[in-house]
Every structure is written in structure tokens, then in C-alpha cells.
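MODEL INPUT / OUTPUT PAIR
PAIR INDEX: 1
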Amino acid sequence: MSSQLLPRMKRELEILERDPPPGVVCYPVDDSLLHYCAQIKGPKDTPYEDGQFKVDVQIPSRYPMEPPKMQFITPIYHPNVDDAGRICLDLLKMPPKGSWKPSLNISTTLTSLSVLMADPNSDDPLLVEIV
């Protein structure tokens, strides 16, 4: 673990607690700063509206140079999420295929995931049959 990782994760946890993304709760698992559980409230006016969706968030040792690993724990029928809960979201991938940047953080990534739930990306589906 890099010496910058721990202070960064403490700052990110403070942001998540003080100013969480709308409809999202995120907390450390077993007091770890490298493993989180997020709960995303289903976005309004979507098929997910009344649901609560758990997402496992793992922070790699090279974070923020590398994106966090996120996976739905709660099953979700969505074209950008496969049966194992893996998520196809450009922010979760390194360039050139993805758009992860070290300036992003867990909060912005969870916000993007919530937006993806409300507005699936049919140009980049994981499950073509759902599109």
C-alpha cells in the first residue's frame, strides 16, 4: 500500500460521510479503508425506484492511479451489469478503453453508477439480450 493511499482514503471516507452522493450510503467493511459496501437507492422513475442495491467496492493498492473495483451484490436486471454483478461503466476502466482519472473518487464513481442505473448505456452493453 502506498503511503499516499491511507490519507486519501481517510479523506474520501470523510466526504462519503459528510456529503454522500444523493441516494447513496457507503461505509467501510470491517473498519477497512480498502473495502466498502455501498447501498444505492433505486433512482426515481425507473424500474429500480423502490429498491436498495448493494455494491461491493474494493480499493486496489495502486488507487487512485487505478479505478476502484465495484460489483453489484444485489441482483439487478440491467444491460450494463452481468449475472455476476460485474459492471460495464467507463469510469471503472483505465484509458484508452475507459475514462478513469486519479482526480475522480469513490463518491463521484458511485454517483455515476446511480446515473447508469437510471440511464443504461446501450452502446456498451454487457448483456446484449437485455438491450
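PAIR INDEX: 2
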Amino acid sequence: MYAIVDIETTGGYAANNDITEIAIVLHDGQSVINRFESLVRPVRTIPYYIQVLTGISNEMVSDAPSFEELAPQLYELLQGRIFVAHNVNFDYSFLKHHFSAAGYELTTNKLCTVRLSKKVFPGIPSYSLGNLCRYFGITIQNRHRAGGDADATVRLLEHLLQNNAKPHIQQFIKRGAKEQSLPPNLPEEQVAQLPYTPGVYYFHNQTGKVIYVGKAKNLKYRVSSHFTHNGSGKQRQDFLRNIYSITYQSCSTELMAFILESVEIKRLWPQFNSSQKRFEHAYGLYMFEDSSGYMRLAIDKKKKHMAPLYTFNLLVEGHRLINRLIERFNLCPKLCFMQTAPGPCSPGGEVVCLGACEHKEAVDTYNHRVNEALQWLEEWLPTFAVVDAGNERDEHSCILMEKGKFYGMGYIPAGVGITNREELKTYLTRYPENDYIRGLVYQFIEKYPGKKVNFG
């Protein structure tokens, strides 16, 4: 038994919008056996452009029953039936959300006539309801009204059933089937062909533009998990509505997938990614020359137009490093902004200032030690490779960190030695460096030190 549903709403997502009209047509696969149609009084006013589109005004719904009043009758009509709609996840998400608010839990099998039409009649230029009805000669009366669109969907379903749609329907609604949870415009075969490997996946819109980049330990499972629930928020609904295709890049390890995801988000700036777009370490180590010619080191917030010598997520990490340089190279705490009181610095512990803050030490002498400190820092920052499994048995994956910064990654033949850094680079792809990637690699080697190969 099918329940063909169409609704009109105050907007495009359930969490912050209301239903203004609903039509449910019960169909036994041969003919219509029952029909329900009603305006619904929304909590919110209907936006003007929606009134123009549907012809439903605020005055028309002012005396209509609320959804909560209709909920018992609607629930009885839908329960135990196959919920059918054109772009079913939109209608279903609205009804599930509003049923839940009224104290009901809607759980039915779903059937999308967009996806079903693609299976039965592949290759049609557009699968919108209006276009399909024109293509098949189905007349729509009262377009953009719940009753008119529901009746058109009934006739579309009947046409599909007459053209051997039943095997596809059984496949769609069988237990555990993923088809009906997919976005309406995403071909199921693209999800089916995804491998069970780590990698990075790309969701594309209708024009092919990448709108989301994600990483996965298992591409098949991760992509499928995006569609296991409809969600009622605007961003969720916009996201699903705009997915038309998937591409992917396999990686041999999860760490490589994490790194590649970060690189691609920075490169492509996809519409529906947000977290890594704004990720930056908060502080940096900077050097500048003061008016007296002394080279000064400072830990400060990251600056847009100045490249830091090194970066830190926490201010205390920066202070820890600069104190180490002060002690090791007899730098002045005041010239490194670790003391701000008036007058000369007040060295303590192992700190020895040779008078630069009082101009007693020659500029060239002090600056030479600052340069020595920076050279030591560059040498102290580690150069190493992370070597792990490759895609094939006769290769290894390799991630190279050079002087504390991410250089690149790739795959090296199993017989190639990893002692020569310059030779190793010929097998690697150079990628842009960022703080997030650096943190990923350092966290990984802390957890798996056996996969780190140091260079002399």
C-alpha cells in the first residue's frame, strides 16, 4: 500500500518552518482507494514569495487546523504504508519533525519518485516533477499546491508501475537498503563503487563544482553515513539537495587521508566545509630590528602580513621556547618581551643578560647570538619521515617533515632506501604546509614512534 504525499511549507527546511498544506493519496498499486487534503495553520507567517508561488495566503490558513490537530489522522493514514513523494527526503523530513513535536514517531519505508524514475527511465534531461509530467504527457492541475502535485505524483507512479518499476521498488524498500536515504540527484552506483579504503571524497554540485571535501578511514562507510538521517536544518537540507556526484582519491593510510583533506579544503574552499577553513595556530615567533639596531624576538598573535619563524597553538608553548633560547644563548629577557617593567631587565636563575637592554653590549655582538639562536632552532626542529603501508605490497607510503614543517608525501618502492633525503623527495608530491597538518603528524608519531625515521 502506497501513501503518496505532497506538502507546501513556509520555507525549505523543517527545523524553522511550518507546513501550510498537505495531501495524502492512498493507492494499492492498481488504483486510488482514499484521499486526504487540507490546509494547515502554520505558527509562522507565510513569506510573500511563497504566497506568490503557491497561491496560499496567510488569510487562507488563518482558520485551518494546526498540524498538531491533524497529527492523529495523518499518522493513521501513513503508518504501515510506503511513504511516496517526489524528492521524498524533503517531505519526509518535514513530517517526521512535526510529528515528533506533536508526540508521534514516524517510521515508514520511503520511496522517491525522482530516484525511481531514474531507474525506470534513465537519461531524461531533468527529473523534476514538472519536466517528467511534460515528458510523459501527464497534466498537472493546481501546480505547487499539495493536492495538485500529489495527484500528478500518483499518475507518475502509476506510469512507472506500468513500466516494470516493481523490481526496483522491492530493491529500494528491502531491509537495509541504502537507496532511499541517498540525495535525490546522486547516482546510487557512484556510492556502490566506493572502495573500503582510507581516502578523501568530494561531493559535487550540478555544475561539477566541489561543495564538500571529507576524509575517511573507510570511504564506503563514511560516505554512506552522510545519508543515514535526513536532518531538519536548513544547511543539512541545502547540502543534500546540492549533491549530484561523488569523486574520490584513495590513500594507503588514514593519516594521509587527513592531510590530503586539509590540503584540498584550503585549495578548493568548498561551500559546506567550515571547520578547517578557519583553523590556524594562534601565536607565532617573530623577529624584528628595533630603532637601536638590536634584533628582538617576540611571541605574538599570528599576523596576516608577517611570516612567523614558528607557530604555537598556546601562548605558554611560545613562552617555553623563547625562555629556552634566552637561557641557552644569553639573550636579554627584556629584548625578548618576557619582561616589561621599566629599566633594565632582572635576570634570574640561569638567565644571564650581557647588558643589551642598557645598550652596554655592542649591537653586532648581541645580534650574532640572536642569529645563533635562530640557527640552533632551525637545526633543533626535526627532519624525519613517517613510513607506513603503501597501496601495493611492493611500496611504502612516506610523509616527510623538514625542519619541523610538512614537506609533502607520496609512495616509494620497497627497495629504495630512506637515508638520502633529496633522493626521497623525487618520489614525493610537495604540498602546502599548514599548522593543522603539522599537528596531525606530531600527534601520530607520538602515538606510533616506531613509524618515524630520523635523518642525520
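PAIR 2 NOTE: DSSP finds 16 helices and 16 strands in the chain.
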